Amino acid sequence: MKPLIIKGTEYSPQITFNPKLLKFEISGESRPEDAGKLYGLALRWLEEYFSEITNAKESRQPLQIRFEFNLQYFNTVSAKYVLEILRILHFSNSEGADIIVRWYYKAKDEDMKESGEEFAKLINIPFEFIQL
Q1: In terms of DSSP H, where are the helices of 1-132?
Q2: What is the CATH number of the domain that holds 67?
Q3: Lower CB count within 10 Å: N or C terminus of the chain?
Q4: What is the mean predicted confidence (pLDDT) over 55-62?
Q5: Number of domains into which the chain is organized
Q6: Domain that holds residue 94
């Protein structure tokens, strides 16, 4: 499957989903003008990717995927899409993928850390909190 690379801007995050490198990252600011369009691409790509690996799971070991969120800021609309991404990861984890979410936050940004903790409570997959 081809990687999904969406360059970040001042208002939208960098999205890097590269299955060959097992690199899955969303980073930067997330307050895009059209969040539905941006995150819609990401959601469709993830659904297709995890559908493919779930269908092929009998023939190989489970993939160990580290999904990284390194957001400096996200608005309420973006939070909705982050939760949707986490739901896809949760479902895929329950289907046999080995997924860990890495949630990055700056030392003085308690709000970002608390946001990650809230997501972790809502979604039953392992979270690692990494202070920058």
Answers
A1: 35-55, 76-94, 110-122
A2: 3.30.750
A3: C
A4: 60
A5: 1
A6: 4-131
